[in-house]
């Protein structure tokens, strides 16, 4: 089971996520987010992460030149896109960059799920999240997990949106998600990650 702790912004919580057994750690580069880290700070946090744990850099509608600087500086294992990026652009990045390309999609209804087929062969993984609200992600809201129950997935995927230590086991049971992602659910306030909650989340996933 893959576990992503997203929106890490301090060395202490990065270390806590790694020690708790996260397989992926997320860094948000989006100024409107309470979890925003500059590319320089992201590079410094990235340097603490041991081989074997994948670093995910999140961007929203980043210009191609800025993206290339971000990749050079942070050297992420995964780029996660939360904006209006097109399938063709992501496919091109997938061909040219060495990192994995993930696309986050706000899952509103069955129609959204069907339109997600457009990412097959264009992205390495799709991350089903709650529909965007104030932020494109990290809003701490769950969507209707029943949409994914028994769904015939044609590409790698993950589940995000309002997951925390108390509900992640139920989410896994209902959806059989191979990867779960949390941000707000392991915080005591927006942007304030808590090591004990990170540990509880990882334990709840492993116990599911
Ligand atoms: O976390 C943010 O602030 C954020 C801002 C802009 C784009 C994406 C963002 N987060 C993306 C994530 O992968 C979150 O972990 C995911 O949306 C789940 O968040 P939450 O519901 O708070 O657990």
UniProtKB/TrEMBL annotation:
It catalyses: N-(5-phospho-beta-D-ribosyl)anthranilate = 1-(2-carboxyphenylamino)-1-deoxy-D-ribulose 5-phosphate. Pfam families: PRAI. The keyword S-adenosyl-L-methionine does not apply. Signal peptide: none annotated. The lineage of its organism: Bacteria, Pseudomonadati, Pseudomonadota, Alphaproteobacteria, Sphingomonadales. Keywords: Amino-acid biosynthesis, Aromatic amino acid biosynthesis, Isomerase, Tryptophan biosynthesis. This is N-(5'-phosphoribosyl)anthranilate isomerase. Pathway: Amino-acid biosynthesis; L-tryptophan biosynthesis; L-tryptophan from chorismate: step 3/5. PANTHER family: N-(5'-PHOSPHORIBOSYL)ANTHRANILATE ISOMERASE. One of its GO terms (molecular function) is phosphoribosylanthranilate isomerase activity. It comes from Qipengyuania psychrotolerans.
């Amino acid at each position: 089971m893959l576990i992503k702790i997203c929106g890490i912004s301090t060395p202490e919580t990065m270390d806590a996520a790694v020690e708790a057994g996260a397989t992926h750690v997320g860094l948000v580069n989006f100024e409107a987010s309470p979890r925003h880290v500059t590319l320089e700070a992201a590079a410094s946090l990235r340097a603490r992460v041991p081989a074997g744990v994948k670093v995910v850099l999140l961007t929203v509608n980043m210009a191609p030149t800025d993206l290339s600087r971000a990749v050079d500086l942070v050297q992420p294992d995964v780029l996660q896109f939360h904006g209006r990026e097109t399938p063709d652009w992501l496919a091109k990045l997938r061909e040219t960059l060495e990192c994995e390309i993930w696309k986050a999609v706000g899952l509103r209804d069955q129609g959204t799920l069907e339109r997600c087929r457009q990412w097959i062969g264009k992205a390495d993984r799709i991350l089903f999240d709650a529909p965007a609200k104030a932020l494109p992600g990290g809003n701490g809201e769950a969507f209707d997990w029943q949409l994914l129950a028994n769904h015939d997935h044609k590409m790698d995927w993950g589940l995000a949106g309002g997951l925390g230590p108390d509900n992640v086991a139920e989410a896994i049971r209902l959806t059989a998600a191979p990867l779960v992602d949390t941000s707000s659910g392991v915080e005591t306030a927006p942007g304030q990650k808590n090591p004990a909650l990170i540990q509880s989340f990882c334990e709840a996933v492993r116990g599911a």
